[in-house]
Design goal:
The protein is 30% helix and 28% strand. The protein is α+β, with helices and mostly antiparallel strands and 138 residues long. The protein has one domain: Tetrahydropterin Synthase, Chain A, CATH 3.30.479. The chain starts with a strand and ends with a strand. The structure holds nickel (II) ion.
Length: 138
């Protein structure tokens, strides 16, 4: 069993804000990330798959096919968007990196082709200091 982790990148803006909380509580909880007009990040998303090496191609996955899927479902979907307002999922979700990672995992797992290796986990970094990992089996 071989694992492959492939990185993808997009830029988007967000605001951390819980509508049910007061402005003061949001400010205390999220600080500058609660800025009313949002702020941007260069997100790094890591897609980790695992499977057997195909005896004919010698590869674990068709990278072009995987890139096409991830670009359509994730990169083009989120790139240069204001996550809070442009993405229907986030009308009711807080736009933290961990929630964004779960949404990305869901957007991939629901269409993941049967002939692809297993989608093992999704990693997401908003800054260099944190990486959240969303495993397929919880
Ligand atoms: Ni932020």
């Amino acid at each position: 069993m071989i694992q492959l982790t492939r990185a993808y990148f997009f830029s988007a803006s967000h605001r951390l804000h819980v509508p049910q909380f007061s402005d003061e509580k949001n400010q205390a909880l999220f600080g500058k990330c609660n800025n009313p007009h949002g702020h941007g990040h260069n997100y790094r998303v890591e897609i980790c798959v695992k499977g057997e090496i195909d005896p004919m191609s010698g590869r674990v996955v068709d990278l072009a096919a995987m890139d096409s899927l991830v670009n359509d479902r994730v990169v083009k979907y989120f790139d240069h968007k204001y996550i809070n307002q442009d993405m229907p999922e986030f009308k009711t979700l807080v736009a933290t990196t961990e929630v964004l990672g779960e949404v990305i995992h869901e957007r991939l797992s629901t269409v993941w082709p049967k002939d692809f290796p297993t989608l093992d986990k999704v990693g997401i970094q908003e800054t260099k200091r944190n990486r959240f990992t969303i495993p397929s089996s919880k």
